Amino acid sequence: ENAEYHAAKEQQGFLEGRIRELNGKLAFAQVIDVSKLSGEKVIFGAKVTFVDVDTDEEKCYQIVGEDEADLENRKISVNSPISRALIGKTIGDTVIIPIPKGKLEVEILEVEFLG
User: Fold this and answer.
1) Torsion of CA 83, 87, 93, 94, to 10 degrees
2) CB 62 within 8 A of CB 110
3) Is the pLDDT of residue 32 over 90?
4) Which CATH architecture has domain 34-113?
5) Where are the beta strands (DSSP E) in the chain?
6) Average pLDDT, the chain
7) What is the pLDDT of residue 34?
């Protein structure tokens, strides 16, 4: 019965830490209405289509917050290497993206903002 008490206290400590972490994120969170964004410049919330210059393979990702990232649904964190390389660029720009095997050179084909 003492072990159960200690396990419960440990779990409580973990949950209190998680609550503090989430409260910290909420304190700095901003709501961004992506449907009101437009233009050709890659920014947070943009859905970006680009083509690998060497292979002609097209890829499309939406740049989202860290907690929204979901690679299966083509949503990448604003802090990812791909996002960091693309942000601030515009349609037609050629961008070098650092990857584990070296560098990936891509050309931005389209920038969309989904509502």
Assistant:
1) -40
2) no
3) no
4) Roll (3.10)
5) 46-52, 58-64, 75-77, 94-99, 102-113
6) 89
7) 58
Q: Which amino acid, residue 102? A: G
| Contact between 108 and 93 (Cβ < 8 Å) | yes
Give the global pTM.
Answer: 0.70
In angstroms, what CA-CA distances link 89 with 8, 78, 102, 104? Answer: 50, 14, 21, 15
| Assigned token pair, 104 | 């990936």
Q: Please report how many Cα atoms fall inside a 13 Å half-sphere around the Cα of residue 53, on the Cβ side.
A: 12
Which amino acid belongs to residue 4? E
pLDDT of residue 38: 60
Cβ within 8 Å of residue 114, ≥6 positions away? 34, 35, 47, 62
**Tokens 């779990």 sit at which residue?**
11
